[in-house]
């Protein structure tokens, strides 16, 4: 655990309306204790890892495709990361039937130095149909993607996700360490286009921070928030909050819900960042300043006055976007990019 980290704000999750209230007031992260303590999966996990595995086996599709398992040697200490010079990764990925993954995790549960085995972000309804009939949450009008994460002792480096995230521990224990989005500079983020799991990650080893190599991480530590979650507990992680996740037991399962409070047709802002790196970053400084003003005018400070001088019927792209306009704009962008 990082020295000096503050506890994440928490409240009881097992009282009526707790989740709805937390979602409505989600200005920051919140731990909801025992939010999913009523789930049969949690009851099985509280009994034993064997009971939890048996419960999951009951839902695995016999005709399901293999899952992608991340596997690494014991020497990595469960850290999903790069190799020493960042030219590659410190793990391999294998396609393995989910039944086999579950049984292998049990086989190594008592081993003092097991290999790391980690199945990340696997769609519940695809691999475990029926699981959500007895183990689910209502998020109101939101239509979340529900995923399951299964593994032994793992350390997932701090990263951001664009969607909001409700992460529910249903077996084992997890430690979650969070930082506000504004700690980007102090977390020493690695490559954007070569990552262990799709999102750029902090290069700092939270188990042993090297403050000579990463001196600004000392400032990030002053903004850290941390919680240890037991089976039944959940944490609400708002969009773009940095989160470092650790599985603390030989068998850990997490179910999470991802959603965005925007229309489905909106693309991820990460695409804009990638394109901006290609088109804006290396401009002469005075041109970058000009484009900063352009983006401020049309994007970050856009309001009713931005296009008020244009007749409403003629505003086109400067009108409020909808699915049709977004589809047309996407087609135009693809044509320009591929020219």
TrEMBL record:
SMART domains: JmjC (SM00558)
Stretches assigned to the JmjC domain: 117-274
Provenance organism: Pseudoxanthomonas japonensis
Matches recorded under SUPFAM superfamilies: Clavaminate synthase-like (SSF51197)
PROSITE patterns reported in the protein's UniProt record: JMJC (PS51184)
Pfam families to which the protein is assigned, alphabetical: Cupin_8
InterPro entries for this protein: Cupin_8, JmjC_dom, RmlC-like_jellyroll
Protein name, as recorded: Cupin
């Amino acid at each position: 655990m990082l020295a000096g980290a503050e506890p994440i704000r928490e409240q009881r999750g097992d009282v009526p309306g707790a989740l709805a209230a937390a979602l409505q007031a989600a200005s920051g992260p919140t731990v909801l204790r025992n939010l999913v303590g009523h789930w049969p999966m949690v009851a099985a996990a509280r009994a034993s890892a064997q009971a939890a595995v048996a419960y999951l086996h009951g839902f695995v599709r016999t005709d399901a495709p293999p899952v992608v398992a991340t596997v690494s040697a014991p020497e990595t200490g469960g850290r999903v990361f790069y190799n020493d010079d960042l030219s590659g990764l410190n793990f391999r990925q294998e396609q393995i039937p989910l039944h086999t993954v579950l049984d292998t995790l049990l086989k190594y549960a008592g081993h003092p130095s097991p290999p790391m085995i980690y199945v990340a972000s696997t769609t519940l309804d695809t691999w475990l149909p029926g699981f959500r009939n007895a183990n689910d949450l209502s998020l109101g009008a939101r239509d979340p993607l529900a995923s399951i994460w299964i593994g032994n002792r793992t350390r997932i480096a701090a990263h951001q996700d664009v969607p909001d995230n409700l992460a529910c521990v249903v077996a084992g224990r997890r430690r979650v360490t969070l930082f506000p989005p504004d700690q980007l500079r102090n977390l020493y983020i690695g490559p954007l286009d070569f990552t262990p799991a799709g999102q750029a990650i902090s290069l700092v080893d939270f188990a042993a921070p090297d403050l000579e190599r990463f001196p600004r991480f000392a400032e990030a530590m002053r903004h850290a928030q941390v919680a240890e979650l037991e089976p039944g507990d959940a944490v609400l992680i708002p969009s773009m909050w940095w989160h470092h996740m650790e599985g603390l037991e030989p068998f850990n399962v997490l179910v999470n819900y991802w959603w965005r409070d925007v229309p489905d047709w909106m693309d991820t802002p990460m695409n804009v960042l990638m394109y901006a790196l290609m088109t804006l970053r290396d401009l002469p400084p005075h041109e970058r300043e000009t484009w900063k003003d352009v983006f401020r005018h049309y994007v970050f400070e856009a309001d009713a006055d931005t296009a008020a001088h244009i007749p409403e019927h003629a505003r086109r792209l400067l009108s409020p976007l909808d699915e049709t306009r977004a589809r047309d704009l996407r087609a135009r962008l693809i044509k320009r990019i591929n020219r």
